[in-house]
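User: Hi! I have a protein structure encoded as tokens and I'd like to know what sequence might fold into it. I'm fairly new to this, so please keep things simple.
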């Protein structure tokens, strides 16, 4: 079966993975996020206990 021969496909996969890791990924990570996280203090929501009718 020719699908089990890794000779051409392994090389293509390694080259494409290296291209992505070394060239494309640093360029993508250099962009500033469009929605930066805010530095607001964390607030906990007020909760009220649930009154069960059978208790």
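Assistant: Happy to help. Inverse folding works backwards from shape to sequence: for each of the 55 positions I chose a residue that suits the local structure. Here it is:
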């Amino acid at each position: 079966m020719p699908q089990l021969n890794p000779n051409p496909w392994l090389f293509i996969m390694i080259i494409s993975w290296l291209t992505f890791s070394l060239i494309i990924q640093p360029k993508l990570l250099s962009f500033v996020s469009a929605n930066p996280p805010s530095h607001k203090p964390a607030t906990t929501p007020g909760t009220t206990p649930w009154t069960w009718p059978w208790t």
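A useful reference point when you look it over: The mean pLDDT is 81. Feel free to ask if any position seems puzzling.
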